[in-house]
Amino acid sequence: MSEIKRMKELVALLSQASKAYYQENREIMSNLEYDQLYDELIALEEKKGLVLTGSPTRQVGYEIVGALPKEAHNSRMLSLDKTKSREDLLAWLGEHKGLLSWKLDGLTLVLTYEDGVLIKGITRGNGIIGEVITNNVRVFDNVPLKINQKGTLVVRGEAVIKYSDFENINALLDEEEQYKNPRNLCSGTVRQLNNAITASRHVNFFAFQLVSGEGLKWDSKSEQLNWLGDLGFDVVPFKKVDHHNLLAELDVFEKEIMDNDFASDGLVLTFDSRAYSESLGVTSKFPRHSIAFKWQDEIKETHLKGVEWRASRTGLINPIALFDPVELEGTTVSRASLHNVSILKQLELGEGDIIKVYKANMIIPQVAGNLTRSNTLEIPKECPICKQTTEIKKVYDVEVLYCNNMACGAKKIKAFAHFVSRDAMNIDGMSEASIEKLVEMGLINTLSDIFELDQHKDLIVNMEGFGEKSYENLMAAIQTSKKVKLENLIYALGIPNVGLNNARLLSRYFDHNIDKIKDADVETLANIEGFGEIIAKSLYDYFHSPSNISVINALLNHIEIEEVEDNNKEQILKDKIFVITGNLETYVNRSALKDEIEALGGKVTGSVTGKTTYLINNDVTSTSGKNKKAKELGVSIINEMDYKKLIKEI
Ligand SMILES: NC(=O)c1ccc[n+]([C@@H]2O[C@H](COP(=O)([O-])OP(=O)(O)OC[C@H]3O[C@@H](n4cnc5c(N)ncnc54)[C@H](O)[C@@H]3O)[C@@H](O)[C@H]2O)c1
Ligand SMILES: [Zn+2]
């Protein structure tokens, strides 16, 4: 192929990948592959002295086509040049002072405050024009809505979702809607039209650059960031470095990445002096004041043992590569998701092939390539669960495998597996494999059948892999599980959008009384702090379906809901409903105050209604929406000190 032809091909391929990545929160290739093709294109552009139109080496991010309002940035938002070499990084810093921080892997935003009030949030977009997502920023977990600062303040930072939240949120989504990584999820979440969804997903914002504001009186970026921290922003964790300690600090970050709950795809090194930074100027795509350091992926070769096809609740059947165990970034890895049929086909896999594996962002195992490409692997024509014919469907431009059988046992098996899992009914000794057998034999059909398994002792004892002993153990585990906390039971039911945390909030709100939950209307449910309309609707629908009610009633014939004493503190705030707004002075954050109120028997909800007892707001005279509403409804507005008096006084 001629080099120009290859360049055209690369531009097309990379543009297609960028569109999927930035606009649709999908990935049609791994970042590793993207970066390799990108480097190949840069090398060709340099060699030929030619850049084709639309080359991704000249533009940032994505063109915006979505429904959100758009706005031009006051100053262009650029990407960052990168290196994987420690020596290059050292040379780049030279004799200067620098700041080394996590390169957070989320969505870059610019926030603007006027006279202390958050008035605007915009995404990076294509660097020139971004999307206005102010309403979504307002429901992030940690963005100050009001700060003690007159005039204009503009700050850039990254919106991210923790790995732990990512897993919880994904678990509640249907397989087809699941996100591949926290970055996709965050991008999808921050750009929601409905901010109730954003609110339920725990987005965090970490500031990394002060663009305008009084803090610029310091030339040092570390002073500026500390100043932002004092104003109430969470700032990206950073270290001051120079050529003496840079490499040692790199090692420290590299150790910490394993325990870091926020996804990061490397580090950013920037010169500490703003004046020096500005004197350096920019290239067409990068500022010269900063550089990204990407981890050298540890890539290992191993043999493919086969592909496991996993059917999901929704009928989607996903391929997982099984390979000879290898050590990667300190752990032993023997399986990696292949995501879909398209990726599987591209890799031309076959049993015994020598494949290359690595961990994306040092965390998620991935197959990077196939050296032997025997291409002998067959895509199953039958569903691994129900044995009915499968079908390959196209979702966007990606091929995925489906089981079309509506009654496919996979759905049932997953529901049972969830029901018995640790945070749910916690029935030990009931593996997915044994559930599969029990379903196959027709012994469990609805959830309550689990509690009647003792009627089938003979059949179970003779099941493959079972025996008298495992049967006895299983029965004992089932017996123990019968006394359960309401929150675990609710979680076990597998209600869409209701994870353990939501189940706990729900259960507490309704005094651990399932009848109260069954009777609640959408409005009451939506008002529970941390809930929104979607969760409320999901709960309401669930508890108003006759078939679900009969499932619950059948379960309640066997199990006993534990009485919960919230704790031994006096319930002095019983029946009091609080709403908290504005900045707090003596509590670290709202959830600290909320925890205390709940421990004292009170409740905290998200918005002021006729049922609210107190609105806690340190700015009692503010004319904010909540204050207005409280005044209209005659709800008392109290400040933190009043609250403290209240809990001592009553
Ligand atoms: N898999 C795919 O199909 C695909 C497609 C397109 C892009 N990509 C990936 O995206 C990369 C390019 O992405 P990009 O241009 O969005 O960003 P980048 O990787 O070049 O990162 C630069 C950005 O990181 C942000 N950032 C995060 N933490 C920061 C900190 N502490 N200090 C300063 N800035 C910080 C800033 O917004 C900065 O502009 C590629 O290398 C590739 O890995 C993948
Ligand atoms: Zn099936």
TrEMBL record:
The cofactors required by this protein are:
Mg(2+); Mn(2+)
The keyword rRNA processing appears for this protein: no
Q: Name one Pfam family in it.
A: OB_DNA_ligase
| One GO MF term attached to the UniProt entry | DNA binding
Residues that bind NAD(+): S79, L80, R124, E158, K294
Record keyword Nucleus present: no
Per the UniProt entry, what are the Gene Ontology biological process annotations, in alphabetical order?
DNA repair; DNA replication
| Residue span, BRCT domain | 568-650
Keyword terms of this UniProt record: DNA damage, DNA repair, DNA replication, Ligase, Magnesium, Manganese, Metal-binding, NAD, Zinc
Which residues carry out catalysis? K103 (n6-amp-lysine intermediate)
- CDD domains noted in UniProt: BRCT_DNA_ligase_like
Q: Which reaction does it catalyse?
A: NAD(+) + (deoxyribonucleotide)n-3'-hydroxyl + 5'-phospho-(deoxyribonucleotide)m = (deoxyribonucleotide)n+m + AMP + beta-nicotinamide D-nucleotide
Question: Which InterPro entries does the entry link to?
Answer: BRCT_dom (IPR001357), BRCT_dom_sf (IPR036420), DisA/LigA_HHH (IPR041663), DNA_ligase (IPR001679), DNAligase_adenylation (IPR013839), DNAligase_N (IPR013840), Hlx-hairpin-Hlx_DNA-bd_motif (IPR003583), NA-bd_OB-fold (IPR012340)
- Residues that hold Zn(2+) according to the record: C383, C386, C408
Q: What is its EC number?
A: 6.5.1.2
Family that this chain belongs to: Belongs to the NAD-dependent DNA ligase family. LigA subfamily.
What is the role of this chain? DNA ligase that catalyzes the formation of phosphodiester linkages between 5'-phosphoryl and 3'-hydroxyl groups in double-stranded DNA using NAD as a coenzyme and as the energy source for the reaction. It is essential for DNA replication and repair of damaged DNA.
- Under which name does UniProt file this protein? DNA ligase
Q: Which gene is the coding source of this polypeptide chain?
A: ligA
